[in-house]
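tool_log.txt
---
The assistant was asked to compare two proteins side by side. It first ran the structure predictor on the initial sequence, then on the second. Raw inputs and outputs are pasted verbatim so the downstream comparison step can read them without reformatting.
(1)
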Amino acid sequence: MPIIFVFVPSIPHQRVYQLLRIPISFKSISDGEEYNHIILAVKFKNLWGALGISRLSNLMFKALKYNSLSDLILEFDKSYEHYFHKLVNVSIGLPFSHNRVSETPLQWKVLTCSIDNGSKTWQSHKDTFNRYSKDCSFIATYFEATGKLPSWCNETYRTGKEAHH
């Protein structure tokens, strides 16, 4: 799917500064075939939702009603299961800047969690996603100022193998 589809829904919301906009990509497997899908997760007034493009209605839009990023991702996981897909990876980028003239490159995959690795429970993934949702604005601000990620945002953090920093 062309990446432009993530930008289109983000443009009208650029000046809504209370709106957090984060790209999320999913990799799933069905009948031995890999599929990739990207959505724009949005957070407004402490509720999460999503915008995206898909032939399947429950894989493109989620209303602003989820209490956490992990609840939103779990809802997508359930939607994939409905179509006999198994989620294998979830990658989350940095929030889109509200600065219209920012030259900071977009970071599409700051956190990547392997969902189907057998060694982690959904609860530990939940903790990872929720921790990242709290950290991502700071990480984005730091990245915009320095051009790099904070030192504590290392490989262990970025793969969800660390509970806290």
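(2)
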Amino acid sequence: MIAEFLAAMKAIPKLVDAAEMIANGIGTMNRRQQEVEAKERLDDKNRLVHDFISARSKLRDTEVQRGGGDPGDPPGGVG
């Protein structure tokens, strides 16, 4: 019985090492997931900004083709 206890005690450092490796692996996976999510948010923001700029450009082109408004109005909708 004492021999079994001593054998189990020898295994404890290996179990601690294995637990640390698992924890490190989980931490790495979490960091990678956060990086992926951050990239997705950045891509969504960039897409939104691009769409906004494109829509504004199309609107401006439409206004130019129509003549913009009253002849006495300042250019660019100011005033």
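---
observation on (2): The chain has a mean pLDDT of 86. The helical segments are 2-66.
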